[in-house]
Every structure is written in C-alpha cells, then in structure tokens.
Write a structure and sequence with these properties.
Distance between the termini: 41 Å
CATH class of the largest domain: Alpha Beta
Shape: globular
Order of helices and strands: EEEHEEHEHHHEHEHEEHHH
Radius of gyration: 19 Å
Helix content: 25-40%
CATH topology of the largest domain: Rossmann fold
Number of strands: 10
Strand order of the largest sheet: 6-7-8-3-9-10
CATH superfamily of the largest domain: P-loop containing nucleotide triphosphate hydrolases
Number of helices: 10
CATH architecture of the largest domain: 3-Layer(aba) Sandwich
Amino acid sequence: MSEFILETHGLTKEFKGFVAVSNVDLKVQKGHIHALIGPNGAGKTTVFNLLTKFLPPTAGTILFEGSDITREAPAVTARRGMVRSFQISATFPNLTVLENVRIGLQRKLGTEFHFWRSAKSLDALNGKAMALLEAVDLTQFADTVTAEMPYGRKRALEIATTLALEPTMLLLDEPTQGMGNEDIARVVELIRKVSANRSILMVEHNLSVVSNLCDRITVLTRGSVLAEGTYAEVSKNPKVLEAYVGSDDMSDAHH
C-alpha cells in the first residue's frame, strides 16, 4: 500500500474556457495534516469540490487509498471515509447540541430516515454522542440549543458531527474563518486532537494556524501548484512570497 492516502494526478477543471484548476498533483501522506494555501482565486475551493465530487474534473484522476474514485458518486466517496466537514454542517439550529451529534451517528448507521422511531432507540446513541462531545470539549453545551452557541463552538460541533461518520480522512474548509484568537486557539487544539489516527487536508487562510499545525503545505496560485513542502520551506520560497505580495498574508504569519 502507498504511504499516501490521497493522490491526484493532473487534476484539471475548466469552466467555459477559464482554467480554475490546472494539472494539480497532490499527495497527502497518511496521518499528516496537510494544508492547501494560496491567494484568493487560487483554486483551493475548486480542488476541494473536485475531491469531494461536488464537481466532475475536466481531466485527471483522484486516488483514495489506492482506488480510483474520480468518477464516483459523492456519497460513495464519503462512505469510503473521506468526509468534508461542511457536508454535514447543516446542523439543525433549533435542536440541542446533543441531538445534532445523535443525528450524525444515525447517519453513520444509515437510519437517517427513521425520525419516527421512538426516542428510546435514540437513547442508545446518547453514550456515544456524549463521548464525541467530550472529545470536542462541548460536554457543557449538550443541552444548549445549537443556534444559541458561540460561533467558534458551532464549528467544533460541525467537527463532532463529522467525526460521528468515523472518517479516515477529514477535509476542513477554512475551519478558523471568522473567529477571534481564543476560538482559533481552541479549534487548532481540536484539529490536533482529532488528527490522531486520521489524515487531514485543510484549506486555511490563517498562516499562523498553518505554521502551527501542518506537516506539509501545498501552495496554489492561479489553479496551479506553485510550491510544496514544510511551512519553513514554503514561507522562505521567493516565488511564494511574490505570490502573496499585496496580500500581506505571509508577513502577518511571522508576527
């Protein structure tokens, strides 16, 4: 078996003559936290949409655990264990935090249409749901209505409901977006914790988060891979610094 859990070869996506993703070769090593970074419009979200089958590629292949999943339906890919956190972040705002995680667990069991089942059969899931809430430090919010939770904690809940699906690979799309420093620190620790025994690919704008957390970084610009390596390597790369000129991102990360 390959040391890489996820690989793309020549991954390309064109929209009406505009090349959003061009010939991207991405390799995510098993057990790594791998970041996809780059200026706005670099194609990061399109790559995510290709990987999770929200979009079909114009060209190229995607391998997950050695299997070609390029033309597979999104649900089939998700069942293989590659799950994107917002795919389920349709958390139900008027349900409690515990109820939301229980629904995530029901999804895993394939009983999502059994809403008419008695509350009794759901009680069996309570123990597992509470364990997941403990893992993401939300125990004290179990009975809180989701809509009333602080923003950063809602993101933690999204990760908890994703973990209910027992993914081997987690795709996180800007997990710290819109957060203050305290929430960012908490979410970084959470990602570190849930990365045990699984691989993570994340799109992240906040470079201090990336430098703190990620084993390997791929820099995209204009849909192509500009550089890849550790944060130390990538942040010193003149091509990368040039790509970020005018966005001040790279320099901010060092403060």
